[in-house]
Amino acid sequence: MFKVHVYVTLKEGVLDPQGSAVADSLHAMNYTEVNSVRIGKYLELEVENTDNLEKRIEEMCEKLLSNPVIEDYTYTIGEAVSS
After folding, report:
1. What distance in Å separates the CA atoms of residue 64 and residue 62, rounded to the nearest whole number?
2. Residue 7 belongs to domain with CATH number
3. Tens place of pLDDT per residue across the chain (83 aa)
4. Alpha carbon of 13 to those of 8, 22, 38, 69, 73: distances in Å?
5. Spatial distance between the Cα atoms of 50 and 37, rounded to a whole number of angstroms
6. Burial class of residue 57, CB neighbours in 10 A (0-12, 13-18, 19+)
7. What's the confidence (pLDDT) of residue 71?
8. Which InterPro entries does the annotation name (predicted)?
9. 61 CB neighbour count, 10 Å cutoff
């Protein structure tokens, strides 16, 4: 079994009102060094080793875990974990 870390973020140019609200709040709390904030999703999957593991993960990301119209994704496959 492998641990897969999936990161989903909005594509460049897509407005992020939630990120803007967080940035505004940080500025109000005197964290003026923050220039901008983008909000995303982090998912952690434990998957069994199968043929074409990377292809299967990409299919999961494209079909369910991200919205390919407005989001990008990246993933890493970690070391095998004991079951």
Report:
1. 6
2. 3.30.1280.10
3. 899 999 999 999 999 999 999 999 999 999 999 999 999 999 999 999 889 999 999 999 999 999 999 999 999 999 876 75
4. 15, 18, 11, 12, 15
5. 37
6. buried
7. 98
8. PurS, PurS-like_sf
9. 21
Question: What is the count of structural domains for the chain?
Answer: 1
DSSP sequence for 44-81: EEEE---TTHHHHHHHHIIIIIS-TTTEEEEEEEEEE-
- For 9, the domain range is 2-80
Backbone angles phi, psi at 7, to 5 degrees: -115, 125
Half-sphere exposure of 49 (CA within 13 A, CB side): 8
